[in-house]
C-alpha cells in the first residue's frame, strides 16, 4: 500500500510566513527576503513528510495568501480593474498584482477594491473568489507551479506530487461577473489549459498529479455533472505519462458516487472521516482500473486516530481491491490542522496523549500502513490511548449533561415579538436614523500584544496590566465619542481572540501555545480544544463591559461569541454529537447574557459569524443542523427583558438558502459583511422582507485601503433601496482587531460622515 498526504500547513511552525508577509507589506523586507522565508518553509515541509515515510508528497500546496487565488493567477483570470497594478513596473513583479487582488490597492494614484472572499466550503479557511466573464480567456500566466515542482523533485524525486484545484471545482467556486451566462459553460475553454499544465508537469517528471475536486461532494446539476464527465474524458484523451488522482473531501459522494468512480482517472480519494458510510457504495461501484485513496486520518481535528476503526475501513478496501489498489491518506489537506504537537509543553500530559497535530498525523498514516502489514505493537499502544480518553473523568460531568437534557422550548424563546421589543428599545436608546456602531474589536497594536504577553509571563502584575487595559479602553471610548459613533464598544483590548478568550474561562477547554491554523492570508488563529463537558464557573465579560459603560453616557455594547461560532472555531470533541456540545456552550453564554443585563448593559451582541460556515454541504442534511444551531442562539438570548437589545454578527456568508433561519434567530439587530459584494448579499434579506433591524457592512476591514465617504454613501443608498431605511444600521463588515489605527480612524470617520449624509437625504425626502 502506498501512503500519501493531500496538503501541509504553509505558515511555518512559528508563523514565519505571516510575519514575513506583514513585514513585506509594511516595506520592512524586500522580495528576496520574503521568497527566502517561503523557500525555507517549503523545504522543511517536504523534508518532514519525507522523513515520516509518506510516498506521495504534495507540492504547489504552498501559497503566500490563498491557493484559489494562486490558481486564478496561474490561469490568467485577472479582473480588468487590476491591470493598472500590473502595468506599474516594480521590483516585486507579479506579487504586487497578487496581493492587490487579495487585499486591495491604494497607492501610486490607484484605489482598487479587493476581490470577494468567502469560506472554503464548511471550514474557517477563506478563499479569494474567482471572477468570470462570459468571454473569459484562460492561459498559463506564470511559471510558479512548474518552478515549485522542480524544487520539490530535487529533494523528493518521484515522490513529489503537484496539487491543483480541479477545473470543475475552480469554476463552481467562482462567480459570474456578467449577466446571461453560467460559469460552468467555460469548462470547454478551461480544460485545454489544464491539459497543457498537466502535460508540462509530466514532461518534467511528475508521476502523479492531484486535482482537488471538493465539489464532487456537493449537490450538482445535470450540467455540472456533464462538466465533470467532459473535463476528465478530455484530459484522459490528451494527457499521457502521468497519473491523475482526483481528491474529494468534507462529505460523502452520495448521488455523485457513480460519476466519481466513473471518471477516467487513475485514483480517487474519498473522505472516510467525515463519511465512513460511503465506503460500501464506493467499493460496490468501483471499476477494476481505479485505485482508491482512503482518507482515514482526520485532517480537520486534533484527536489521535483510532487505529482499530481506521483499520476496519482499510481492510475492507484491501479485501475488495487488493493492497496495490489502496492508498492510505488523511481525510483532506492538513492545512486545517496545527503543525506539531511536540511544540506544546504545557498541555496536561493525559490529554496530550489523546492528540495529534499535522506532523503526528503523518506518522499515523505511516503507522496504519505498518499495522496493516502486521505490526501489532503499534496497535496496542494506540488502543491504550483511545481507552484512556473514553473513560477519563476529565471529559464527563453529569451535572452538565443533566442541564442540557432539561432544556425546553421555553428556554429558547423571547417572551415578546420583535415589533413590540423594537418600540420599547427605540424609546430607551433614542438613536438617530442610520445609527452607527462597530462590530466590537479595535486594533490590537504591538503595545497591547506585548502587554498581554508580559502579563502572561509574570513580568507584569495584574494591577498594572488592568490599569493599562483600562487606559486603552478609555482612549478608545473618547475617540468614538469625538467622531460621533452612536453605539460604542470597549475595544476588546483584554481579549486575545473572540473564541479563545471565552474558552479560557469555560471548563472543558484547553489551549495550545503554537496550535496556529491559517484563516486567510496572514491571519492565523489558535483554536481552543474542547476536550470535555462545558460549563461557566464565573462571569467572563462583566468586569470590562461595566467599566466601559461607566466611562460614557452613550450606549455601550456587551460583546459575546455565540455557541455555534465557538463550536466551529474550536477543535471539537469527536466522541459526541456537535449539537450536544453546542447546547452546553449555549447555556454558558445564556448565563453570561443574563449577568450582563443584570449589571446594566442594555445592548448585548452575540456574534454568530460561523453559523453559515457550519451548514452541511448537502441540502438534505441542513434542516437538522439549522434547527439546533438556531435553537442554540435563541437559548443564549432567552430570558432577557424586552428593553435589552440583542445583536448578532455574521461575516463572509451566502444567506439566500438560510434566510428564514436567520430570521428565526430573532435577533433585534444583525450586522453582516456586504461591502466586497457591493451589497449583493443584501438581496436575500430584501427578497425575504427581513423584519428585524440590520447593519450591512459598508467598510471592508480585510483590506488596508480606506473607503471614501462617497463610496460608503453609495453602498448605504443601495441598502436603503432594498430595505426600510428605519431598520438600517451603519457599521464595518467585521471587527477591526487586525487593522492599524490610522486607517481605522480615517475609515470610521468617513463612515460616520456617510451616515450623516444618509440622514440628511432622508430629511430632504420627507
TrEMBL record:
Swiss-Prot/TrEMBL keywords: Amino-acid biosynthesis, Metal-binding, Methionine biosynthesis, Methyltransferase, Repeat, Transferase, Zinc
Enzyme Commission number(s) of this protein: 2.1.1.14
One of the record's GO molecular function terms: 5-methyltetrahydropteroyltriglutamate-homocysteine S-methyltransferase activity
Domain Cobalamin-independent methionine synthase MetE C-terminal/archaeal as annotated: residue spans: 434-756
Matching Pfam families: Meth_synt_1, Meth_synt_2
HAMAP family the UniProt entry points to: Meth_synth
NCBIfam families membership: met_syn_B12ind, PRK05222.1
Protein name: 5-methyltetrahydropteroyltriglutamate--homocysteine methyltransferase
UniProt source species: Dyadobacter chenhuakuii
Classification of source organism: Bacteria, Pseudomonadati, Bacteroidota, Cytophagia, Cytophagales
Amino acid at each position: 500500500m502506498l501512503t500519501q498526504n493531500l496538503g501541509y500547513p504553509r505558515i511555518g511552525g512559528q508563523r514565519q510566513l505571516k510575519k514575513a508577509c506583514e513585514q513585506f507589506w509594511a516595506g520592512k523586507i524586500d522580495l528576496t527576503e520574503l521568497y527566502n522565508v517561503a523557500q525555507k518553509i517549503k523545504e522543511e515541509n517536504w523534508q518532514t513528510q519525507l522523513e515520516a515515510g509518506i510516498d506521495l508528497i504534495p507540492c504547489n500546496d504552498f501559497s503566500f495568501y490563498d491557493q484559489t487565488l494562486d490558481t486564478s493567477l496561474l490561469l490568467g483570470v485577472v479582473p480588468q480593474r487590476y491591470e493598472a497594478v500590473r502595468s506599474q513596473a516594480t521590483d516585486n513583479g507579479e506579487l504586487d498584482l497578487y496581493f492587490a487582488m487579495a487585499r486591495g490597492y491604494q497607492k501610486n494614484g490607484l484605489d482598487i477594491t479587493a476581490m470577494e472572499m468567502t469560506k472554503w466550503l464548511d471550514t474557517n479557511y477563506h478563499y479569494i473568489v474567482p471572477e468570470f466573464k462570459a468571454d473569459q480567456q484562460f492561459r498559463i500566466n506564470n511559471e510558479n507551479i512548474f518552478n515549485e515542482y522542480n524544487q520539490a523533485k530535487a529533494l523528493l524525486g518521484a515522490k513529489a506530487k503537484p496539487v491543483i484545484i480541479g477545473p470543475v471545482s475552480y469554476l463552481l467556486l467562482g462567480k459570474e461577473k456578467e449577466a446571461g451566462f453560467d460559469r460552468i459553460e467555460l469548462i470547454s475553454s478551461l480544460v485545454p489549459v489544464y491539459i497543457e499544465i498537466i502535460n508540462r508537469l509530466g514532461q518534467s517528471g511528475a508521476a502523479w498529479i492531484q486535482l482537488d475536486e471538493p465539489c464532487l461532494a456537493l449537490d450538482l446539476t445535470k450540467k455540472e455533472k456533464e462538466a465533470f464527465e467532459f473535463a476528465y474524458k478530455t484530459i484522459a484523451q490528451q494527457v499521457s505519462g502521468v497519473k491523475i488522482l482526483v481528491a474529494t473531501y468534507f462529505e460523502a459522494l452520495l448521488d455523485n458516487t457513480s460519476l466519481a468512480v466513473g471518471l477516467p482517472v487513475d485514483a480517487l480519494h474519498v473522505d472516510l472521516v467525515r463519511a465512513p458510510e460511503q465506503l460500501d457504495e464506493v467499493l460496490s461501484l468501483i471499476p477494476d482500473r481505479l485505485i482508491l485513496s482512503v482518507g482515514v486520518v482526520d485532517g480537520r481535528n486534533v484527536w489521535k486516530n483510532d487505529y482499530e476503526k481506521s483499520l476496519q475501513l482499510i481492510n475492507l478496501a484491501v479485501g475488495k481491491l487488493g493492497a496495490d489498489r489502496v492508498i492510505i491518506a488523511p481525510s483532506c489537506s492538513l492545512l486545517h490542522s496545527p503543525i506539531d504537537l511536540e511544540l506544546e509543553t504545557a498541555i496536561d500530559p493525559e490529554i496530550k496523549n489523546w492528540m495529534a497535530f499535522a506532523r503526528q498525523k503523518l506518522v499515523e498514516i505511516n503507522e496504519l500502513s505498518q499495522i496493516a502489514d502486521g505490526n501489532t505493537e503499534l496497535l496496542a499502544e494506540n488502543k491504550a490511548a483511545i481507552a484512556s480518553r473514553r473513560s477519563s473523568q476529565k471529559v464527563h460531568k453529569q451535572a452538565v449533561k443533566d442541564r442540557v437534557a432539561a432544556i425546553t422550548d421555553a428556554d429558547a424563546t423571547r417572551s415578546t415579538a420583535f415589533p413590540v421589543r423594537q418600540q420599547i428599545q427605540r424609546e430607551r436608546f433614542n438613536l438617530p436614523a442610520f445609527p452607527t456602531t462597530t462590530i466590537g474589536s479595535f486594533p490590537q497594536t504591538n503595545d497591547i500584544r506585548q502587554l498581554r504577553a508580559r502579563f502572561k509571563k509574570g513580568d507584569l502584575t495584574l494591577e498594572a496590566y488592568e490599569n493599562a487595559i483600562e487606559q486603552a479602553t478609555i482612549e478608545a471610548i473618547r475617540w468614538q465619542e469625538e467622531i460621533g459613533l452612536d453605539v460604542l464598544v470597549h475595544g476588546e483590548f483584554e481579549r486575545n481572540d473572540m473564541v479563545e478568550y471565552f474558552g479560557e474561562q469555560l471548563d472543558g477547554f484547553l489551549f495550545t501555545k503554537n496550535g496556529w491554523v491559517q484563516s486567510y492570508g496572514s491571519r492565523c488563529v489558535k483554536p481552543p480544544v474542547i476536550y470535555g463537558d462545558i460549563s461557566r464557573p464565573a462571569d467572563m465579560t462583566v468586569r470590562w463591559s461595566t467599566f466601559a459603560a461607566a466611562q460614557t453616557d452613550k450606549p455601550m455594547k456587551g460583546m459575546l461569541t455565540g455557541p455555534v461560532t465557538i463550536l466551529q472555531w474550536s477543535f471539537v470533541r469527536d466522541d459526541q454529537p456537535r449539537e450536544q456540545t453546542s447546547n452546553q456552550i449555549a447555556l454558558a453564554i445564556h448565563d453570561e447574557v443574563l449577568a450582563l443585563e443584570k449589571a446594566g448593559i442594555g445592548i448585548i451582541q452575540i456574534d454568530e459569524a460561523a453559523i453559515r460556515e457550519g451548514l452541511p454541504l448537502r441540502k438534505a442534511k441542513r434542516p437538522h443542523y439549522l434547527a439546533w444551531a438556531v435553537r442554540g442562539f435563541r437559548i443564549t438570548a432567552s430570558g432577557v427583558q424586552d428593553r435589552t437589545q440583542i445583536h448578532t454578527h455574521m461575516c463572509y456568508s451566502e444567506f439566500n438558502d438560510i434566510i428564514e433561519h436567520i430570521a428565526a434567530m430573532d435577533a433585534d439587530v444583525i450586522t453582516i459583511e456586504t461591502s466586497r459584494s457591493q451589497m449583493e448579499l443584501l438581496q436575500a434579506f430584501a427578497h425575504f422582507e427581513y423584519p428585524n433591524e440590520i447593519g450591512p457592512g459598508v467598510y471592508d476591514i480585510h483590506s488596508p485601503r480606506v473607503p471614501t465617504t462617497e463610496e460608503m454613501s453609495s453602498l448605504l443608498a443601495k441598502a436603503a433601496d432594498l430595505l426600510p431605511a428605519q431598520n438600517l444600521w451603519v457599521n464595518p463588515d467585521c471587527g477591526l482587531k487586525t487593522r492599524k489605527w490610522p486607517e481605522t480612524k480615517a475609515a470610521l470617520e468617513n463612515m460616520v460622515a456617510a451616515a450623516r449624509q444618509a440622514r440628511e437625504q432622508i430629511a430632504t425626502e420627507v
